[in-house]
Amino acid sequence: MSAVERNYSYAEFMKAVGRNSSSVQAEKLLNEIYMDLFLNRLHRKQTKARLLVLIDQALDDRDERAFHDHVKQLVKFEETN
After folding, report:
1. In this structure, are residues 36 and 3 in contact, taking their beta carbons and an 8 Å threshold?
2. Which domain does 42 fall in, by range?
3. Count of the separate structural domains present in the chain
4. Quick check: is 4 in a domain?
5. pLDDT truncated to tens, each residue of the chain (81 aa)?
6. Which residues contact 70 (CB under 8 A, 6 or more apart)?
7. Is the entire prediction scored with pTM above 0.85?
8. CA distances (Å), 17 to each of 7, 9, 71, in order?
9. Per residue in 52-71, is it b (16+ CB within 10 Å) or e — as a string?
10. Residue 1 falls inside a structural domain
């Protein structure tokens, strides 16, 4: 489970830092949180870009069904992110 999935709040992070007498441990935890945030953001951007390409392709192909399917996927994606 990633640090972000553990839903660290600021207070929880400070408790974790307080339990670890080593600043190395605190820095490691903070780096893990930042990496998770970065990777999640990158994944969201790539997913949205892929859906937009599929929508454009459906328009170019005049494929109404594919267009509606991909738009629905994009709307659902946007609602959850």
Report:
1. yes
2. 10-80
3. 1
4. no
5. 444 455 666 676 677 667 655 677 778 888 888 899 999 999 999 999 999 999 999 999 999 999 999 999 999 999 988
6. 51, 54, 55, 58
7. no
8. 15, 12, 44
9. eebbeebeeeeeeeebeebe
10. no
